[in-house]
Each structure stands twice: as C-alpha cells, then as structure tokens.
Specification:
eight-stranded mixed beta sheet; four-stranded antiparallel beta sheet; Glutamine Phosphoribosylpyrophosphate, subunit 1, domain 1; alpha+beta; globular; 2 domains
Length: about 350
C-alpha cells in the first residue's frame, strides 16, 4: 500500500507540476525596458488626468467708457492721458479681484462703481443732464452662471446705481425697480442717498447750457450725435463664470423719464455661461429695438458664430445700416473678446491673466 501511494504521488508531480512549470517558462517574456515604459506611461496618464480635472485657471476683464465721444485730435494730450489712466485704474481694481479668485460678478460691480465715481464718464458723478438739467441714472447687472439680473432706472439720489441693481438681483424677486421705488429700496438696503446736485459737474452743466441754448435744445429734441456715453464691464472669472454690468446717465437733454438700453436686460446688458457677457453703449433706442446684447449671444448659440464675428455683424452691419451709432464689449466663455464700434471713438480696455493689457480711445 505504501509503495502504491508513493507511485501515485510521483505520477502526480511528474505529469501535472512539470507541465505547469513549462507553461510558465513558455509565456512570452516582457523585457525590463518594456516594463519600465509601461510604468512611465501610466504615470504620464495619471498626470494628464489630474491636469484635466484641475485646469490652469484663467480670467478676462473688458471695460468701456462709452462710444460716440470726440474724434481723434480734438482732445488735448493731457485729457486723453486722464481717460486712459482712469481706465487703467478700473482694470487694475477688477484684475485684483479676478486674480485672487473672486467672482466675475464682484469684479464688474467694483469696476462700474469706480467709473460711476469718476467724473470723466457719463455715469454717476459726471452724468449728462436731462431736459431740465437733472441727472437721471440707469444701471443693470447680470450673472451668467444663474441667469439672474437686476436693474434700476430713472434714479436721482443713488450714488452708485450699479450697487442698487445688484441688490435688486440679490434681495428681491424682481429684475427692475424705477424712480422713487428704486431709491426707497436702496435706502432700506443701506445705500446712503446723495443730493441730486452731487452728480452735476461744472463741465456737464456747461454742456447742458450750451445744448439748452442751441436749436436742438430749444425744441426739446435729442442732443448732438456725439453726446452718447455709458460705462460697462464684462468678465470671465477663474471658475468659468461670466457677468456683465452697465451704467449710464443717458443722453444730454433727454426727455425726463426717458430710459435707454443700459438697464434693460437683453438690450444693453446680457450674460450667459453658455455663450458670453455683453455691455453695450450708444443710441439706446436702437439697441432696445434690436435686442443687441441678447442677439449677440443668440448668434453664438444658434448660428455658431464667434464673439468677434457676432459683434461685427451687429455693430458694423446691422446697426450701421439703421444709421445707429454705438458699440459694445463682450467676452465669451473661453476668454475671447470683442470691442466693435462704429463711432469716432469708444473708450475701452481689457486685461487678462495671460498678461495681455490694453486701453484705447480711437
């Protein structure tokens, strides 16, 4: 019996273990170099995946200080430097927010508030005056990530209308408040009111008196073509969110109660993370009738146009054919920008996380 068990064990080891060992040795050998290559490729793949999940964050900011100002050569060199310097300051304020990881919404509000406080621009302090010599202000803001928006129109005692517009968006279920209702709301929200005289500068008052004494002023018609202006900002932040804000005093000598495109979402201001952020400037009535800001977004979304192509089509072709003066600024979801205008000048500038920076008038 013992002999039989030994024989059985021997046969098992011989006919099963040996073939198994042969199979192991017959497997195709992988060179050491090839093994190292696979390991390295795996590491590279892991690194690329990590990069895709955490892409390099970039941001873009574009501003305007109005279209339709004096032509080249009509301003002094000192005045031009003043405008360019203030636009640089505005861009720096917004860039600081975006570079620090702040939101596009905070950036555009901060920039527009700065320009409202600067008497050089037609918004806030330094705004043009209506037919009765009073400043009536409009502003709006829109969040491209949520589609929410806020606006105020025809206000006369709110120092920074864009801040009131932000509060309308954040603190109410409405989009626009006007006149006394907007002013009362702003006061309740903690915005300190100012006397209406705060907005009137000697330069604007002199311009209003000149307009009033002119034939166009005496019959209550619109002021000269060059008396358009607005301020605005559009931004893309590091999280990929877009936002736009616009503020204006309107047109010199406008009828009391007149509201332009600046506070109207889709006309003078629009933002959507799917496409772009837009702020317009010029003859507001034409921008309202043509829903310019939204139309730019629609051209991108439904016709596949770039932000530059859409902007050019609207300003250089559509509005120009209607003999309408103005321009716009826009930034798309990838940080590409457009700044088209069909007037003699448009105060404008942009800055990017890449280091690109520019301010210009003509």
């Amino acid at each position: 019996m013992k002999m039989l068990n030994r024989l059985q064990g021997f046969l098992t080891r011989k006919y099963f273990a040996v073939p198994a060992m042969m199979m192991i040795f017959l497997l195709p050998a992988r060179p050491l170099a090839a093994q190292e290559k696979v390991t390295k490729e795996a590491k590279v793949e892991l690194i690329s995946v990590a990069s895709a999940e955490n892409p390099r964050q970039t941001w873009t900011l574009v501003i305007h200080g109005g279209a339709g100002g004096p032509g080249k050569g009509t301003m002094s060199e000192e005045t031009e430097k003043g405008y360019l310097g203030k636009m640089d300051e505005a861009l720096s304020l917004g860039a600081k927010i975006l570079e620090g990881g702040g939101s596009s919404l905070d950036a555009v509000e901060t920039v527009v508030k700065f320009m409202e406080d600067c008497p050089l621009f037609n918004a806030g302090k330094g705004a043009v005056l209506n037919e009765y010599g009073k400043a009536e202000l409009d502003a709006s803001i829109m969040d491209g990530s949520t589609g929410m928006a806020g606006a105020v129109a025809g206000v006369t005692t709110i120092k920074n209308p864009v801040a009131a517009a932000r509060l309308v968006m954040d603190k109410t279920s409405h989009v626009m408040l006007v006149g006394r209702g907007a002013e009362s709301f702003a006061k309740k929200m903690g915005l300190k009111p100012v006397d209406s005289a705060y907005f009137i500068t000697p330069e604007r008052l002199a311009s209003w008196k000149k307009w009033k004494s002119s034939p166009s002023g005496s019959n209550g018609s619109q002021a000269e073509k060059e008396k358009h202006g607005t301020v605005g900002a559009v931004a893309l932040d590091q999280k990929g969110n877009l936002a736009a804000a616009t503020s204006t005093g309107g047109q010199m000598g406008k009828m009391a109660g007149r509201v332009g495109d600046s506070p109207i979402i889709g006309a003078g201001t629009y933002a959507s993370n799917n496409t772009c952020a837009v702020s317009a400037t010029g003859q507001g009535e034409f921008f309202i009738r043509n829903v310019i800001a939204y139309d730019l977004s629609a051209l991108m979304e439904y016709r596949g146009m770039t932000v530059e192509e859409a902007g050019k089509l609207l300003i250089a072709e559509k509005l120009t054919k209607q003999k309408a003066a103005g321009g716009l600024i826009a930034v798309d979801k990838d940080g590409n920008i457009a700044m088209p205008f069909n007037t003699s000048s448009m105060y404008r500038g942009f800055t990017k996380s890449t280091g690109e920076h520019e301010v210009a008038i003509y």
